[in-house]
Amino acid sequence: MSAQDAARVARGEAPQAQAEALRRRGVDALTDARSRGGDGRADSDHANDARLLREVPPHWA
Description:
This is Transcriptional regulator. The chain is mainly alpha-helical. The chain is 62% helix and 0% strand. The protein has one domain. The longest helix has 13 residues, at 42-54.
């Protein structure tokens, strides 16, 4: 177990791989886009772009 995962487990959190798998299973992209509001047309065109920009891994920023 990595040091980061050990710290997460010590705080009562799931290891990163498990937490990511749960997050991915929790909400699909369409539900996520629709939950952000709007009329479903203009916002949905950019929903994936916004999601990708929000979820940039720290080592790419």
